[in-house]
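Work Package 4 report. The design task specified in the project plan requires that, given a folded chain encoded as structure tokens, an amino acid be chosen for each position. We show below one input record used in the internal validation round.
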């Protein structure tokens, strides 16, 4: 069996790590697997195909902004990939993230239909079954269930002149409809159910949760914090104030305009024994109080693991995600999570060691966090770890893809 995965990244970012993990697992199972990618940073295995370049990608981005259609250009790069497929002869093409201006989706799907190649399409977000939007619940737009057009999110996806959403959705119905052996995989049950209502209504739709490395994301000893200079102030804070309660907060969610009420609700209720630790990009420093600490963007996996271990809880006011591996990684380190519950995020907590509260309800988030503070992190840590190992271990979950590939090859 020969498998070709296509994804924008290889070896970094959430989907880039997933395709590399799947490739490694395939090799162990005796499956010939290559990864087609647009960008990699390091550790590229031999069975890969790099498509496009900076010039073709920028041209694709420009044409997308003008036409309002993404995933329709890079025709020369895609034609070269199809010539490679003529010799590689894949039995299955596994589509991941295609919406980063590097590939022509129509050319790929027409080729697969003509050559009778099975297609697996993983819904890491909503792009493949809509007229081109990655998420739609925040804009409360569900036109994709019938016909897109006059898109309320057009400007946010940089479609500057024309609205191509109606054409894109119609093309998806036609192009995916031409694939005889088509499987749509949702990374959550929520997104799998959504996909069934649109382009993939006639496909085999299943859910396979993304997974994490539970041997890496784990509780660690305090000595393992010492190597990170940036965390020295947090360690000192903990040592001089043993009762301090640290709340982890992803900056890119907390500083969105839609979450201003949530931010202000927490800011005015923080007590002297509490500190909010913002991590990642997007902080508006002018809004920080003396009980808030901006750690900034952290690229080191070891350092991010140390932070997950050091804090007492994470409050994630995410409004829409297909899943949220951030919630999973934090719990794998023994730290409970409070999260808004819309979309697939609610599947990352079990109501025992992590809690989903009503979307956009800051009082509910505060109350759930306060319950954790009252009982103490230690009451939840073992249950968090067990929950993640049971539901989100990457080896267990990605073996479901191996079973899927094998079932497709037998059909």
């Amino acid at each position: 069996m020969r498998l070709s995965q296509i994804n924008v990244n290889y070896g970094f970012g959430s989907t880039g790590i997933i395709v590399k993990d799947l490739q490694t697992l395939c090799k162990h199972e005796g499956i010939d697997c290559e990864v087609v990618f647009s960008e990699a940073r390091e550790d590229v295995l031999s069975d890969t195909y790099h498509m496009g370049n900076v010039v073709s990608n920028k041209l694709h981005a420009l044409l997308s902004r003008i036409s309002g259609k993404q995933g329709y250009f890079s025709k020369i790069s895609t034609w070269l990939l199809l010539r490679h497929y003529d010799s590689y002869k894949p039995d299955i093409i596994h589509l991941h993230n295609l919406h980063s201006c590097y590939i022509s989706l129509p050319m790929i799907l027409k080729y697969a239909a003509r050559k009778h190649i099975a297609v697996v399409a993983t819904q890491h977000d909503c792009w493949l079954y809509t007229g081109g939007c990655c998420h739609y619940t925040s804009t409360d737009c569900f036109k994709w269930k019938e016909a897109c057009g006059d898109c309320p999110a057009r400007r946010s996806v940089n479609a500057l002149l024309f609205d191509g959403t109606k054409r894109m959705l119609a093309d998806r119905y036609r192009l995916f409809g031409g694939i005889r052996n088509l499987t749509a995989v949702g990374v959550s049950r929520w997104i799998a159910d959504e996909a069934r209502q649109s382009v993939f209504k006639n496909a085999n739709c299943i859910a396979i949760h993304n997974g994490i490395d539970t041997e890496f994301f784990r509780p660690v000893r305090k000595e393992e914090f010492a190597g990170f200079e940036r965390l020295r102030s947090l360690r000192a804070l903990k040592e001089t104030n043993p009762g301090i309660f640290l709340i982890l907060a992803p900056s890119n969610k907390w500083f969105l305009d839609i979450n201003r009420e949530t931010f202000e609700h927490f800011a005015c209720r923080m007590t002297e024994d509490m500190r909010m630790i913002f991590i990642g990009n997007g902080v508006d420093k002018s809004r920080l109080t003396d009980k808030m600490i901006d750690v900034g963007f952290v690229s080191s996996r070891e350092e991010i693991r140390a932070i997950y271990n050091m804090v007492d809880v994470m409050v994630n006011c995410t409004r829409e995600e297909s899943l949220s591996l951030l919630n999973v990684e934090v719990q794998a380190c023994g730290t409970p999570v409070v999260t808004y519950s819309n979309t697939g995020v609610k599947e990352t907590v079990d109501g025992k060691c992590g809690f989903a509260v009503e979307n956009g309800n800051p009082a509910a988030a505060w109350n759930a966090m306060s319950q954790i503070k009252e009982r103490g992190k230690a009451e939840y840590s073992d249950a968090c770890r067990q929950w993640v190992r049971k539901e989100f271990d990457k080896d267990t979950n990605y073996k479901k893809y191996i079973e899927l590939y094998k079932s497709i090859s037998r059909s």
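The domain at 222-391 is CATH 3.40.50.2000 (Rossmann fold). Validation will be extended to a larger panel in the next phase.
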